[in-house]
Each structure stands twice: as structure tokens, then as C-alpha cells.
Design goal:
The structure holds two protein chains of two kinds. Chain A is an alpha/beta fold. Chain A is built from 15 helices and eleven strands. In chain B, strands 1-2 form a two-stranded antiparallel ribbon. The chains are: A alpha/beta, B mainly alpha. At the A-B interface, helix 9, helix 10, helix 11, helix 12 and helix 14 of A face helix 1 and helix 2 of B.
Chain lengths: 491, 95
Amino acid sequence: MNLTDLTIASARQGLREKQFSARELTEAHLAAIDALNPRLNAYVTVTAERALAQADAADADLAAGNVAPLTGIPLAIKDLFCTEGLRTTACSHILDNFVPPYESTVTANLWRDGAVLLGKTNADEFAMGSSNETSYYGAVASPWRPRGSTTKLVPGGSSGGSAAAVAARVSAGAIGTDTGGSIRQPAAFCGIVGLKPTYGRCSRWGIVAFASSLDQAGPLGRTVRDCAILLRSMAGHDPRDTTCADLPVPNYEAAIGRSVKGMRIGIPKEYRMPGMAAEIEALWQRGAGWLKDAGAELVEISLPMTKYALPAYYIVAPAEASSNLARYDGVRYGLRTPGGDVIEMYEQTRAVGFGKEVRRRIMIGAYVLSAGYYDAYYLRAQKVRTLIKRDFETAFAAGADAILTPTTPSAAFALGEKGRADPIEMYLNDVFTVTVNMAGLPAISVPAGLDSQDLPLGLQLIGRPFAEETLFALGAAIEQAAGSFAPEKWW
Amino acid sequence: MSLDAATIRRIATLARIRVEEHELASLAAELNGILGWIEQLNEVNVDGVEPLTGAQQMALKMREDAVTDGFYAEKVLANAPDRAGDFYAVPKVVE
């Protein structure tokens, strides 16, 4: 048995049945990271010593019968979550020496439940990107390659390191964040499962902020069940985040295998984009067929604002980013580049510290919030956002329990292939995922098949607010029909 | 509308990011591309629509206005690039 091939659910069982120790499980993952990370660059920091200490503590707990939901399970955490005493960079030069004096709520919840930290994963700088190529610490190579080719592909982004780590079996599961598709798109590109929970389901406290009204933490795993296990530990009320919901956390795992008979699945006609690959359309129909076979009812719905979600997002998200990232001024933490006076110091620090995409978004944000342009851009985008949310509310009020769409308009592309000349080319990757963040809804991406080059494709299920259980039940039905997908080992 | 070099310079000042002269043209092209694409929002009729400021599915919570955190200056200052005692230090602002 190869311990790194185990899902979280089977590792949990093996640990409890003493088939192997938490130390053995962690050591197997650390050895795999040593061997593979130089090629993938999925981790920016590997915490071997700390992982082994946590694993030993887990073994002591297992021996004493103190078993928590994640005791001994090795995880990878996007380097956007503050970890006390452990460098947290947001994959930006401006934070490369930042050591948080506190722990994010989501990660604290994971350690409370016994999880082991393998390391911090690579991501797009400040989570701004869809390919992991904007990271100051270099791009991540996907463990997937087109059939018969050695072309390096992107893992997607921004949680690209987290998705690549899970797909390449150098972590049992991972935590990411999703502001416009940053969990679901890399999950789809890497052939794994990723969930963006309802806005407010997980605390944002201690997560490096990008766009506060859109950001949400979520799990990435090789199965729907693994994501359900992780979400239960991550979620829950936190008085330190006023937007965090004070609602009980269900046992999400109980939804796996629950019947989907009689559920109404909305198929939005506006997601049939002109120029969309025939393979994506075929996959979507196949997915709808699987749910129908499982007893669900398909209903055509209309989400007319879909095409406006992305342009509205590229006002709202940069506006919030320009405000959130104003804190990086070289005074309290992070990089400082000297200047003649304090203003020059700010301007130099931010010019040197931020990468191109981050600079671009901060400037767009500053512009759309500036006097004379606020109403034309920012206020209008917020009104469009109301209409996007209303589209979903109308569909749910008419009886849809969930909505089925493709996760991405294509499979993964090659490193350096997109967005060089035109940033919008990269932005269009999130066309199917971004509506969900604008409306604050939960959505899951489940691997559903391979394209003609043997690259994974995902299907997305969008749910009502706080109906993650419905998504786990439906996601498991798709998973059962589609099977699972692993990259062929070329390393 | 199209942003010119002077507007790019003004935005850079607002954003407190130093932009070199030779970067202005390419930045203007990128930002104009993005803003031009965003213009399609003008097709949407938003008359009488309230703006959505957040994605909360519930009312914001209230809490007592009380100090609940603090008293650890060392932790707060631990990452400071420069400090003087319990203060952050910056280049001289007032002569």
C-alpha cells in the first residue's frame, strides 16, 4: 500500500485501526514532497519538523483514544492563511519576510481537530490570477500533461499549489480560497474536487484579504467525501469575523450517498457560450444525464445576467483590493524600500513589492473608486451585482435545488500560453465560476471526465445559501457515475 | 473613454505606486483594454436597482462596544521594518 495514495477518509480509517501510524503517513508525504516538489513547485514552504511533531502528537492521541475528526491527517495550506510563527507570504515579494504573530481561524480549527501541516502552498500573488503564474515564487507545474506530450500545463489558480499538491499525491487534502473561482477552477484543471462554501460559512479572520465581500476559504480533496470531512472542521462561527455565520455546522459527510431522487437541477441556458468547446458541452450533457439517472429532475432555467458577472467582478474585486492592499506601505510589516520622504517610501515600496497583475488591479480599483468615476463604474457594478444575485434567487424560488454547469470553458492550458498580451484572456477562465462569488452562494467542482488530450474537466454544482449538504449529495452522485481521475506518473 | 498618460500618472499617485515614464504607454494600453471591456455593463438597465455591498445571507451582527483585544505591543511590532521603542519609525514627515 502506498500511503500517499490514500484519501482522507481511508487514511482516517487506517490510522484508527492502527494499520500505520500518523508518523508513517506524514513521513510518506514528506518523502514524496522531497522527490516531487522541485519539479512541481507546489509548496513554497515545507514544514517537515513541525509536521513530524504534530504527527507524533496525533499518534499519542490515537494511542490514548483521543480521536478528533482529522487526527493525523496531513494537509497543505495555501500561503494566504496566517500561521503563527510561520512565514506567510501571499506569494508576494511585499510579504516575503512576514511572520504572523497569530493563527487564522480556519487553520486553528484544523489543528484543533488534529490535522498535520505539511507546508504552505504556492498561489497567484494575493490570489490574483487563474494560472498560478503571478506568484513571486514562480509558477506551479500541473502533475497532468497532455497525452504523449511533455508540455508543462498550469494547475489553474489562484489555489494552484494546493490543487497540484492534492492531485500529485503530495498531500492528502488542501485548503484554498476562492474569490472568483480560485478553488473550483484549479480543482477542475487538476482532476480533483474543490468547494467554495457559502459566503460566511468559514471565518475569513487571518486570511490575507483580497476582496472582502467575495473571499471564502474552502477545501480541495481527491473525493467529495474528503471535502465534506474538511469543511466540517473548517466551518463555524467566529466572533472575530462579523460576516461569519452563526449557524450550526452539520455533519456534511452524512450527505454522501444520500438520495438525489426528486431534486430539481437547473440547467442555465446562458452558460452555453458561443465558441465553447464541443467537449465541454458534451460533458455537461453527460453530467445532466447522470443526475437524471440518479432520479433528479432537469429543468431549464435562465440566468440572464451571466455575461455581465465577469466585467462587474473586475470592478468590485479590484476596488476592494485597492482598499485592502493599501495596508502594504512599508511601515508596519513587510518590505520597505527607502525613499527621500515618506510618500516616496510608500511609492517605491509598492512599486518594488507588487507584481504586475496586482499593480494593475490596484490601479483599476483606485480609478473606479476615484471622484467622478465612482458612480459610473463602482456603483453601477454593485447594482449589476444585485441583479446577478436576483437571477439565482428567481431560479431557486421557482424550485431549483441546485444548478449544474461546466466549471471552466476549457481544460488546462500551457504555462505562458494565456494572458501575456491581453489580461482579459486570462480573466475569461472564470466566466462560469465568478457569478457564484458575486451572489455569495456555495458551489462545488467535481471531476467528470477527460478531454481528447486526456486532460481532466470538471462540472460545477451551485447551491442555495448554506445548502452545502445538497452539493455533497449531488457531487457524490456525479463522482459515482464519472469515477476518479489521476495523472499518469511521469516523475 | 480612454485614459491618457496624465490620467495614468494620477491613478498611480492615488494608488501610491511609483510608475516609470517608460511604463506609462503599456500600462495605459492594458488599463484601457480592461476598462473598454467593462463598458459592456452600460447595456444593463439598473434604474431603481439597489446596489449590493456584500454577499451576506443574513443581517450583520452587533456587539458591545468594548475593548476585547490588545496589550501586546511586542507582537504587533515584531514585523516592523523600523521602530523606535513602542512606535513604528518612518522617514521624517515634519521638518
